Amino acid sequence: MTPSLFDRNVPGMTERLQSAVVGIAGCGGLGSNAAVALARAGVGTLLLADFDRVALSDLNRQYYFQEEIGRLKVEALAARLRAVRPDIRLVTHAARLTPENAPALFQPAELLIEAFDSADSKRWLIESWSRAYPERPIVCASGLAGCGRTQDLRVRSAGNLFVCGDEEADKRLGLCAPRVAIVANMQANVAIEILMSRGERVEP
Amino acid sequence: MLTINQRDKLDWHPGMTVREMLEAMGYSYALITVVVNGEVVEQDDYETHAIPDEAEVTVFHLAHGG
To answer: Nearest by CB to B66, which of A29, A131, A161?
Structure first.
């Protein structure tokens, strides 16, 4: 049998995730780490959106590298994802997301990962996504700053809204690789759980 | 009677809005998102959105950082 990248995947997962289309709103600490996890898990298509470029201070927690400083995050991340999985389908938007353009940019996505920095932005993304696509899940992050307190991190949900984190720790505490990456991977894990539980993809 | 965050009970009255529910519960966080019976209620509607009796309400706090 030909070796496959997915030989060690959870049974049944590869087939289901192959048809999945997941949007990632923001490619910073949350979005870059969640994207890598979803790509490795086998999600077929990722839509990546971020207006920003890689800066030195991003490297303490975001999935970027020294030689990428100054590059558009969506382009740097797309290259890393293709280096893991050349077959992955990627759509990149190097644009500032707004309540007006986000639903249209992510229209093909059956599930959205909220990966913004500002809480105000988190809120309008939840509102605009839920208004446009009330039946489609949005997986958010809130409360991932600081270090330690691993036991406070959790997932709460209501309807199609899922929130990962402790819902308290604010970025004034500082942002550090382990806690940001844990919550980003919680988001990816929740997304996979939702996709698996919903079975075959329904065309959006 | 409303159930808040799957735990707290709150007396309900006809026409009770999301804003009244938040005040009664003592939620002072500026940045939150509210789900009533599985539907997100937008911030602009907190003063007008009437919560039905026996509703399941979830209040999420949104903290900066990403």
So the answer is: A29
- Across the interface, do B65 and A28 touch by the CB < 8 Å criterion? no
Contact criterion met (CB < 8 Å) for B60 and A156: yes
* ipTM confidence score: 0.96
Does A116 contact B at CB distance below 8 Å?
yes
Task: Name the pTM for this structure.
Answer: 0.96
Per-residue model confidence as pLDDT tens digits over A76-96: 999 999 999 999 999 999 999
Report the 10 Å Cβ neighbour count for A60.
12
CA distances from B24 to A155, B6, B10, B27 (A): 25, 16, 8, 8
Residues B66, A117: C-beta atoms closer than 8 Å: yes
Q: What is the pLDDT of residues A134-147, one digit of tens each?
A: 999 999 999 999 99
CATH superfamily membership of B2-61: Beta-grasp domain (3.10.20.30)
B8: amino acid identity, one letter: D
